[in-house]
Structures are given as structure tokens and as C-alpha cells.
Specification:
The chain has about 180 residues and is an all-alpha fold. It has a domain at about 125-180. Helix content is about 80%, strand content about 0%. The protein has helices at about 1-15, 30-35, 45-125, 130-135, 140-150, 150-160, 165-180. It is rod-shaped, with a radius of gyration of 44 Å. The two termini are about 70 Å apart.
Length: about 180
């Protein structure tokens, strides 16, 4: 479309028609139009006519280059849109995965809390010496959770039934966790 418009303006100016007042590039000669479309008659043209014709050709070449660049830019914009859509899809997928993981973590935490609550009830009803023996043998993190969930009266009886070193370690860790 742009090329056609420039061509019309150039033809109009070369043919001597007035375009926006004084004519495009002041091309008053009709025979320049003939040369533009293949008539090879260059004899008899003045140097200024040749220069004007060369300018018109240069303008057309520049317009062709600009059109090609525009097409290239549009193509690259299209490619970028596709890449952007792919990225958006991946972000959405990652958000869904993150949400599922958060739900699973919540479920795991709820189950762990229920298990700790059940173990707390069980260890609270045991004899302190039996509870102490079992807590000493289990993972320290779980033992601490159970002791923290117990009433102070029950946990103190169990701690007093443990050997001094284990009771001290558990008491230290309990104090640190309660500070957090």
C-alpha cells in the first residue's frame, strides 16, 4: 500500500502534476515517467532530470527496504507473542503445581499434627518410666513434639524418669523450640 502511494506521488510529480502545492520534488517532466517504467531513452535528459529520476528510484528502493524491515519486525513480533504465550502457559502450570504442593504440605502437616496428638494421648496415659524408655529410643524431633504437646505435669514426670543427660538435652531443645 505504501509502495503504491509513493509510486503514485512520484508519477504525479514526474508527470508535472501538482501534489500538495509545488509538485513532489518538483518533477515537471512527463518523459521521466516513461523511463521509470522501462523506456531506456536517457539521451536528451538534462543532468537535473537524471538526478530527479535517480532520487525517485532511490526513494522506491528505500521504501522496499523499509517494507522488508517492517515485515521482518512483524514476523519477530509474532514469534515473541508465541514465546510469551508459552511462558504464560508455563507460569500458569507452575502456579497450579505450587498450589497442589501447598495443599499437600497442609495435608501432611494436618496428619502429622493428628499423629502427634494421638501419640501425646498415648504417652500421657503410660507409666512415666515406660514413656521415657520409648521417647529415648525415638527420633528427637518427634519426641520433642510429643513432649511439647503434653501437659507440663505429664512431661515433667517423663523427663524425671529419663537419665540425666537425655533429660537435659530434651529440656534444652524444648526451651529452644518454645522460644521460636
Amino acid at each position: 500500500m505504501k509502495r503504491k502511494m509513493i509510486m503514485i506521488l512520484v508519477i504525479a510529480g514526474v508527470a508535472g502534476y501538482s501534489v500538495a502545492g509545488s509538485g513532489l520534488f518538483n518533477f515537471p517532466y512527463a518523459h521521466a515517467l516513461e523511463q521509470q517504467f522501462g523506456d531506456k531513452k536517457t539521451e536528451g535528459q538534462t543532468p537535473s532530470e537524471k538526478i530527479r529520476l535517480e532520487m525517485a528510484n532511490d526513494l522506491l528502493k528505500k521504501q522496499d527496504e523499509l517494507d522488508k524491515r517492517e515485515e521482518l519486525l512483524k514476523s519477530k513480533e509474532g514469534q515473541l507473542r508465541v514465546v510469551e504465550q508459552d511462558i504464560d502457559k508455563k507460569i500458569d502450570e507452575l502456579k497450579r503445581v505450587q498450589q497442589k504442593l501447598e495443599e499437600l504440605v497442609k495435608v501432611r502437616d494436618d496428619l502429622e499434627a493428628k499423629n502427634v496428638a494421638n501419640l501425646t494421648k498415648a504417652y500421657s496415659t503410660m507409666a512415666p518410666a515406660d514413656a521415657a524408655t520409648r521417647l529415648k529410643a525415638m527420633d528427637r524431633g518427634i519426641a520433642l513434639k510429643i513432649l511439647m504437646a503434653m501437659k507440663t505435669k505429664n512431661s515433667s514426670k517423663i523427663l524425671s524418669s529419663l537419665d540425666t543427660a537425655t533429660a537435659a538435652q530434651l529440656s534444652e531443645q524444648l526451651a529452644k523450640r518454645q522460644m521460636e
